Structures are given as structure tokens and as C-alpha cells.
């Protein structure tokens, strides 16, 4: 059942997701409102009941993989009250943090920072509210200057909120390899995105011996391996990866320059084939790679096994999973050794899929807009290029790696991107002369909504 709440005034802006991208946007919009004296009427919808930053992956040993100075604001506005340094100051930990002497706080602390910032915008965020689709609202002449955001709350009822513009910031979706698709309801098989909750329900949490397969060779797999080793002494884990080795993430300073805000222009202005080449060249800064320090720790654990002669964990590299079968006794994986083609079946009690993320949730949400949004190409300001009939601006954050570079899915350029989108929104919805450039009729809604 769908409930329409069209008695409510249309929003100026609906944000889907309230992760770092849209939290960063909320800050940029607040700054813009202060400058212009006009605030946009904005609501953000997030399906999480309360905010957490990849909460299902937050294990003790996990550190931020980027300098804390690349927080939600500092790169754009070091004087912002929403900086990580101000967070430390407010929490009375600034001096202690300095004493640790790191640029890379633990992810639990950065999660707490993000929760702290998000709490300042709690009035604008509807938690526990999943957006299921976005529909066009056409006027008599076929112009679409409004969109309906269809949400579903914990009661399962669909509700509609009308909006004059949209920003999608829904992040990645766990990648489940096709062979495991049939096991999505099996509690013994789960993606790393849900690791913390699901591992706590496994028998090993009560000390029962388990043999666990850990599929993947990226940062997530490495962190899960360390956690299984340190926190679950009854677990024997096999790390199963297609590549020959765990590769280190390249975060050396020259390479790091590709994550600078100025590099977005370089990338965007290149021809398509050269952009694709750059993404391939620098793939090892972010994907299928592991923090070098963590690689040393894993190597050390495996080496000590050799010294002691007690083999607890396995490191199965160059292995392709050929088949998966499950029954009451466990999950059997058939592995092909890519070095010699030999097949081997190994039975596990559980499987953790640290197989990365896909970036396609924006496509599903915007599907009802059909041909109007084409192939979801974006301009430099992250606005989707649409058929001229669709005048309601639609922006996407975190789905523009192909055009804007590898920094797009990370925290790297987030504060600058947020300001670029905020400026574009103000140009469209609240131009300095008080008239909306993209409004399809003299409704006067803009001034009314913005001057509230
Ligand atoms: C485990 C992990 C660790 C990471 N660590 C780092 C790091 O150290 N440094 C770095 O730069 N990057 C890191 N990243 C990359 C990460 O993508 C960014 O840091 C950042 O989270 C991107 O923010 P976002 O808001 O675009 O997406 P997300 O953080 O994924 O937030 C998206 C939000 O949208 C909500 N949502 C999704 N779909 C819907 C829907 N249909 N309706 C309503 N709400 C919805 C989700 O609940 C979520 O709160 C990490 C990624 C992972 C998976
Ligand atoms: N501490 C932190 O800050 C932290 C923690 C975790 C993750 N992250 C970030 O999150 C992002 C994603 O990292 P991630 O490790 O989750 O993903 P990832 O880097 O994309 O790695 C995915 C791994 O899964 C493997 N894989 C994918 N599909 C497979 C299949 N069908 N069969 C077998 N193996 C398969 C890949 O193998 P191939 O290499 O063979 O393709 C790769 O080893 C990165 O930006 C990372 O930095 C950060």
C-alpha cells in the first residue's frame, strides 16, 4: 500500500542516503544558507535505524585509510565547526590524540566523529526509511519539475515525498558472486558488509571450533582474517584468493596526488579512453589491495604457524571457486588451483564473502525515470544529464568514478564535491535574483520555501 502525503509542501531537496557524502552536503548547504540568507528545505532518507559508518565491518583493529584531515570539511573550510579536530576538542581528547601521533585514527573513532556530525542534522534526516524508487511528476505540458521519492518505513508502508531536486548518495552494494546467490538466506554464508553482526551468531562466538572460508584478497578480507585470528581462537580460517599474493595499497605521496580535488578536473577533461586507462593504472591504490602493515601482520601469523608446526589457518592463493554446495553438515567449496588446474573440494562451517562492492543502487532507484536520464552520465557538477523535459535537477555522489576519478567513492574530495553540488543547487533552486531558472511555471514556490 502506498500513502501519498502530498498535503506536505514539496521539498526543495531530497537526499537519498545519509552517509559521509550527504552529511558533507548538509554541511555545505548550511554554509551556503548562511552566506545567502536562504535555506533549502531539505530532507535526507536513510534506511539505517541510526547512523553508523559501515557498522557491520567495524572491528577493533581497523584503521582509517586516509588522513583524518580529509574529514567532512577541512579541505574546503578548515574553520568549520564540523572538523575532526573540533570533534576531538569537544570530546576532550585532542591532546591524547596528538600524543598517539597518527594521521590514521581507528575507524571506530571516525565512525563516532561521523555520528557526532550527523547528530547536528538529525532534524533533517529520516532514519529507518528506505527509498525504494523515484518517480517523475509531469505537468500538463509533460515537463517534469518535481519528483516523487517513494519510501518504505519499518511498518512496510510506502509513502511518497515530493521534491524539486534530488541527490543520491547511497554508497556501494555488497558484491555477491553468482555461485553464492542461491545461499543468500543461509545464515552460514554472508558478505563482509555484515561481518560483525553475523559472526556473533556463529558457533565460534561461544568457542565452538569452526572452519571458515574467507573469500577475497582486499582490505576487508585482510581485516576479517586478523579479527578471526585474534578474537575467535576456535576458528581455523582459510583465506581464498584468485591472485597469487596479497598486494599492498599504493599510498605513496606522488600517487596520492590523484586523490587531490584539483585532479578531478584533470580526469574529467580527459577523453573517455584515457580516463579508463588512468583508472586501470591506479586500480592498486584502492581495489584488491591491502594496507602494507596488515600484510606484514598476516605474513607474521602464517610464519609463526610454520615455526610451531601447528597449522591453524590456510592461505589458498591462485584459487578459483568452481562450485558451491551446501547441506546440513556445511558448505563445500570446489576450488581450482590456477597454477596446475587441479580441483579440490573443501568443506567449511561458514563462508565470509569479502568480495567487494558494486555501485549500481542509483540505477535501480532512478529506473522509473526511464529514458529521461539516459545512461546516467553526469556533468562536472555531478548533475545527471537528462532529457530537457526533466527540469528537476538530479545529482549523484559516489557513482562517478569513471568520469571524476578514483577519489569519487572515497572521502578524499568529499568536502569539495559537496560544495560544488551545493553551489549548483543554489544556482538552480535559489538564484541570487530570487527566480528559479528551471521552474516550469510562475508558482512562486521557491521564494516561499526558501525564505521560511
Ligand atoms: C568497510 C569500508 C571502509 C572504508 N574505509 C574508508 C576509508 O578509510 N577512507 C576512505 O576514504 N574511504 C573508505 N571507504 C569508502 C567509503 O565508500 C567512503 O568512505 C564513504 O563511506 C562514502 O560515503 P557515501 O555517503 O557515499 O556512502 P556510504 O557511506 O555507503 O553511505 C550510504 C548511506 O546510504 C544509505 N542507503 C543506501 N541505500 C539506501 C536507500 N535505498 N534508501 C535510504 N538509504 C539508503 C545507507 O544506509 C548509508 O547510510 C570504506 C568503505 C568500506 C566499505
Ligand atoms: N580500514 C578501512 O578503511 C577499510 C576496510 C575495508 C575496506 N575498505 C575499503 O573498502 C573498499 C572495498 O574493499 P574490499 O576489500 O571490500 O573490496 P575490494 O578491494 O574490491 O576487493 C574484493 C576482493 O574480492 C575478490 N573477488 C571479487 N569477486 C570475486 C569472486 N567472484 N570470486 C572470488 N573473489 C572475488 C577480488 O578478487 P580479484 O582481485 O581477483 O578481483 C578482491 O580480492 C576499498 O576502498 C577499501 O579501501 C577500507
Automatic annotation (TrEMBL):
Pfam (any one): Lys_Orn_oxgnase
Region (Disordered): 433-452
Domain of life: Bacteria
Cofactor(s) annotated in UniProt: FAD
Keywords for this protein: FAD, Flavoprotein, Monooxygenase, NADP, Oxidoreductase
Molecular function terms, GO-annotated: monooxygenase activity
Protein's UniProt keywords contain Oxidoreductase: yes
Pathway of action: Siderophore biosynthesis
Entry keyword Kinase: no
A biological process from GO: intracellular iron ion homeostasis
Database matches in PANTHER family: L-ORNITHINE N(5)-MONOOXYGENASE (PTHR42802:SF1), MONOOXYGENASE (PTHR42802)
Family recorded in the similarity comment: Belongs to the lysine N(6)-hydroxylase/L-ornithine N(5)-oxygenase family.
Protein's UniProt name: Ornithine monooxygenase
Organism per entry: Azospirillum palustre
Amino acid at each position: 500500500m502506498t500513502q501519498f502525503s502530498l498535503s506536505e509542501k514539496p521539498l526543495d531537496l531530497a537526499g537519498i542516503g545519509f552517509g559521509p557524502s550527504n552529511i558533507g552536503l548538509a554541511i555545505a548547504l548550511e554554509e551556503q544558507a548562511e552566506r545567502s540568507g536562504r535555506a533549502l528545505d531539505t530532507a535526507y532518507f536513510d534506511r539505517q535505524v541510526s547512523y553508523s559508518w559501515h557498522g557491520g565491518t567495524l572491528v577493533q583493529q581497523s584503521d582509517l585509510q586516509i588522513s583524518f584531515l580529509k574529514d567532512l570539511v577541512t579541505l574546503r573550510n578548515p574553520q568549520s565547526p564540523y572538523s575532526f579536530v573540533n570533534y576531538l576538542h569537544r570530546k576532550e581528547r585532542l591532546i591524547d590524540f596528538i600524543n598517539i601521533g597518527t594521521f590514521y585514527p581507528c575507524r571506530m573513532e571516525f565512525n563516532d566523529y561521523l555520528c557526532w556530525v550527523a547528530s547536528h542534522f538529525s532534524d533533517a534526516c529520516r532514519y529507518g526509511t528506505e527509498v525504494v524508487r523515484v518517480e517523475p511528476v509531469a505537468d500538463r505540458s509533460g515537463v517534469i519539475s518535481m519528483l516523487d521519492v517513494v519510501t518504505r518505513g519499518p511498518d512496510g508502508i510506502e509513502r511518497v515525498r515530493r521534491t524539486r531536486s534530488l541527490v543520491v548518495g547511497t554508497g556501494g552494494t555488497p558484491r555477491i558472486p553468482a555461485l553464492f546467490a542461491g545461499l543468500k538466506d543461509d545464515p552460514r554464508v554472508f558478505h563482509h558488509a555484515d561481518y560483525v553482526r553475523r559472526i556473533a551468531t556463529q558457533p565460534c562466538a561461544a568457542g565452538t571450533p569452526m572452519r571458515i572460508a574467507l573469500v577475497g584478497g582486499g582490505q576487508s578480507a585482510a581485516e576479517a582474517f586478523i579479527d578471526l585470528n585474534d578474537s575467535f581462537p576456535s576458528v581455523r580460517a582459510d583465506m581464498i584468493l584468485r591472485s597469487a599474493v596479497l598486494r599492498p595499497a599504493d599510498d605513496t605521496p606522488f600517487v596520492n596526488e590523484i586523490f587531490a580535488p584539483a585532479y578531478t578536473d584533470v580526469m574529467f577533461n580527459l577523453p573517455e579512453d584515457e580516463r579508463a586507462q588512468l583508472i586501470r593504472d591506479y586500480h592498486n591504490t584502492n581495489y584488491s589491495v591491502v594496507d602494507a602493515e596488515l600484510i606484514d601482520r598476516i605474513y607474521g601469523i602464517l610464519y609463526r604457524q610454520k615455526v610451531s608446526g601447528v597449522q591453524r589457518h590456510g592461505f589458498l592463493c591462485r584459487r578459483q571457486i568452481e562450485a558451491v554446495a551446501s547441506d546440513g553438515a556445511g558448505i563445500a567449496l570446489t576450488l581450482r588451483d590456477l597454477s596446475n588446474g587441479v580441483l579440490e573440494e573443501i568443506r567449511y562451517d561458514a563462508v565470509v564473502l569479502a568480495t567487494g562492492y558494486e555501485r549500481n543502487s542509483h540505477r535501480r532507484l532512478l529506473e522509473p525515470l526511464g529514458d529521461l536520464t539516459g545512461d546516467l552520465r553526469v556533468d562536472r557538477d555531478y548533475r545527471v544529464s537528462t532529457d530537457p523535459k526533466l527540469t528537476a535537477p538530479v545529482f549523484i555522489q559516489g557513482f562517478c568514478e569513471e568520469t571524476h576519478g578514483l577519489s569519487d567513492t572515497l572521502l578524499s574530495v568529499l568536502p569539495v564535491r559537496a560544495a560544488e553540488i551545493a553551489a549548483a543547487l543554489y544556482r538552480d533552486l535559489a538564484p541570487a535574483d530570487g527566480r528559479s531558472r528551471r521552474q516550469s511555471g510562475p508558482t512562486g514556490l521557491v521564494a516561499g520555501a526558501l525564505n521560511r
